[in-house]
Amino acid sequence: MKLLKTFTFLPLLCFGVEATEHHGTVELALMNSVGNKYGDEYYVNITVGTPGQLQSVLIDTGSSSTIFLASDVPGCNETLCPQTFDLSASSSFDAVSPGALYAPFGGAAALGDFVTDVVQIGDLSISKVPLGLAHTFRSRLQPYTGILGLGYSSREAINRTMSHKVPKHPSFIEVLTKANAISSRLFSVHLNKLDMYGSILFGGIDTAKYKGPLTTLNCLNSKHDEVDQWYLNLQEVTMQPHDGPELTLLRSTQDEPRLALVDTGSPDWQLPSSAYHKVLGFAGAEAPDGLWPLPGFNRPCRQVAYGAANTTHFQLTFAGNGTNTATLDLELADLFTPITGDDGSATVDRYGQPLCMLRIVEVEENNEPLIISSSVMRAGYWVFDLDNGQISLGQSDLETTSSNVVQVQAGTDGLSRAVQRLVPESQLNDVEGQMALPSTYKLSTATNTIGYTTGAQFYPSSAAKRSGESTMRLETQRRPTK
Predict the structure, then answer these.
(1) Among 16-20, 28-32, 216-220, which range has the highest average pLDDT?
(2) How many helices (H) and strands (E) does the chain have?
């Protein structure tokens, strides 16, 4: 997370996103605000049903199901649930497996049905997409939204009591592949600064969004003896205070590897107790006293501005089951996000200073996997390759305003053929393959383009000006229908 020194909140704006053709890829704008909340999660806008109903969904590499909230979720209102899906208003809706959805995640849960309906992303429309429709939803994070699961299909959230009679459904990215919207089960994520749009690119990469080489790492086997999760080894984490020697926060060994899950759907970086308290000591954040009912450890935002002098830096080194390693650099400011009130306004301390919250959480020393959260991921450019069970990582270029989208073809050398500055690696483990799908997915071009309501009141005024000059034009890209 990259913060500016002062925050001025502006009126809510709605921006249309212009569609541009790029063969074999689909790119969507990423927003980090929904409703009156800012900076916790990352969302894309899609529509579901006929006619389309707008849904802002959280992108989640830590899950595999795509889930929407039904209009009958208890307690839902416009504040708690900014968008819900009214199945009775869709002429293309079809119930497939009633009661089969059970998705527990991070102290939350979604319960409901598996259904199919038309989904539109940008100006691309796909019919009969398998979806979860939650009639009950609980979460510690508010407001409640749908989820776009970006994991392997086998991790689908099926109620165990019904798993023997409910067929497995393909993940969203597998549907994109089967519909011939993209060639490979691959997507790349550029979260960008908090005050700018990011992007998620299906079927390709944007070589202008990172600096230096892109390094490929083999994901690790799960308990199913194949790659079906985004697991890496967190080899080492070091911290360089501005006024002291470098400190090692944690280090993997052959006997005690530190398993990590790369998870766009989690805002808080998990650190074992020993590392957590070291970071807390140098972060300068304070726990709110009894007069201030605020979450976590906080600090005035102006004191943790991105690019500030005399700040603390971190290096995270990742590895897979091969010989490659990749190191990600981040600043202390990456680990802070602004705190907003229920009405979307900045939360201030007793001196009127806008406050930011430290996005790290303490876990037990032997806890695994450690969650590599979106607060850490902002510093990197991430390529998730389901076909080959690999993650490729580069240092994000947070100052770029250019774009160079390149399609990645299917195959073990697809990324190598698309990228010049690549440090490749050959996967040694078995990888979950594509599902044998009896259904066909009709691909068509929609007659309308999805707008993006972005919560611009949560952005600094200077950032809103920059966004108007550059990132507001982030296009939704599609493959032309044949």
Answers:
(1) 216-220
(2) 5, 32
